Amino acid sequence: MSTMITEVYEAFISAGAPEDKAKAAARAVAEYDSRFNRIDSDLALVKAEIVLLKWMLVFVLAGVASLVMKSFIA
Q1: pLDDT, tens only, 12-53
Q2: What's the alpha-carbon Rg for the chain, to the nearest Å?
Q3: What DSSP state is assigned to residue 74?
Q4: Using an 8 Å Cβ cutoff, are 44 and 52 in contact?
Q5: Where does residue 46 rank: exposed (0-12), middle (13-18), buried (19+ CB within 10 A)?
């Protein structure tokens, strides 16, 4: 059974929507809300991985730059 956001349900009822349609709309909003929460958590993981990749790239570029400088100096 799906959950329902009571604030949305009460807002639809106070706006004059029929009870069955208000319940269906509140359940649909709750379903989309859970989907957005899942997407937000997935995006947080992707952002963390991007930060890690940026640091790895900085270290690789620093290593390459040091090797290039060493080849010109030595």
Answers
A1: 888 998 888 888 888 888 887 777 788 889 999 999 999 999
A2: 26
A3: -
A4: no
A5: exposed
Q: List b or e across 23-39, with b for residues whose CB sees 16 or more CB atoms inside 10 angstroms.
A: bbbbbebbeeeeeeeee
Residue predicted with more confidence, 67 or 37: 67
9: buried, middle or exposed (CB in 10 Å: 19+, 13-18, 0-12)? buried
Q: What value does the mean pLDDT take over residues 60-66?
A: 97
Q: Quote the distance between the C-alpha of residue 26 and its chain's center.
A: 22
Say what the pLDDT of residue 29 is. 83
